Amino acid sequence: MPQITLTTLQSLKLKGEKIAMLTCYDATFAHEASQAGVEILLIGDSLGMVLQGHDSTLPVTNADMAYHVASVKRGNKGALIMADLPFMACATLEQTFANSAQLMQAGAHMVKVEGAAWLADSIRMLAERGVPVCVHMGLTPQTVNVLGGYKVQGRQEAQARQMRADAIALEQAGAAMILLECVPSELASEITQAVKIPVIGIGAGAGVDGQVLVLHDMLGLSLTGRTAKFVKNFLAGQPDIQGALQAYVKGVKDVSFPGPEHGFSA
Ligand code: KIV
């Protein structure tokens, strides 16, 4: 696969071709997923749950993230590498810069940060200093203790209006991408149409520009035995992991995934 850049992803949005993104934490899976055509590898702080066995993403450190970014970089064959800034990595502007620099120097092409319009200044300053930013909105797992659980966000009209306004403000501040997690499908489509930057969804319906899943989830692996509504097991019916990864890319590209059963209504 030729090296995927933000320009590539922008042109996929313009052409209406869906973007396939997956979480990835090591060199072997980075090799397999990028060979299968996954365009964005996200080193998600979900590694705290699926690799480290914690019950939330909060214990993950920036050093943990940098270690896995460097591993993914070594196996990657052309995908764009996005790295999560973990819990409290952006508590101050100085920490935001230092932690982003550590992830970019470990091999990330961009960082992802959970939040909303209050991030505008940090995003503008990161973009000016050469760090493209994806903003993770909707269900933001790092604030699970404020949200009162892993719940769909944006169901109330006031909340939906705020999310639409925040997305536009963050694009204007220089965000390069938006990720929407557990947002009603109709609201996610509206936000996707309202901004020029690519919008990736997880539990956000098929009207966004691309999809992401946690690697372990789409391979049918679960430590808890629970599976979220938006997850599909792509290993089922496939001979091997490469088959599952290719089936995922095909499902995203031909828009057979996600189906209506994987989304949420308002
Ligand atoms: O950490 C992660 O894996 C994520 C995805 C759920 C999008 O942020």
UniProtKB/TrEMBL annotation:
E.C. number: 2.1.2.11
Presence of the UniProt keyword Transferase in the record: yes
Annotated binding of Mg(2+), by residue: D45, D84, E114
GO biological process, one term: pantothenate biosynthetic process
UniProt-annotated catalytic positions: E181 (proton acceptor)
One cellular-component annotation, GO: cytoplasm
Subcellular location: Cytoplasm
Keywords: Cytoplasm, Magnesium, Metal-binding, Methyltransferase, Pantothenate biosynthesis, Transferase
Cofactor list: Mg(2+)
Family recorded in the similarity comment: Belongs to the PanB family.
UniProt cross-references to PANTHER family, sorted A to Z: 3-METHYL-2-OXOBUTANOATE HYDROXYMETHYLTRANSFERASE
Subunit record text: Homodecamer; pentamer of dimers.
Name this polypeptide is given: 3-methyl-2-oxobutanoate hydroxymethyltransferase
Species of the source: Pseudomonas eucalypticola
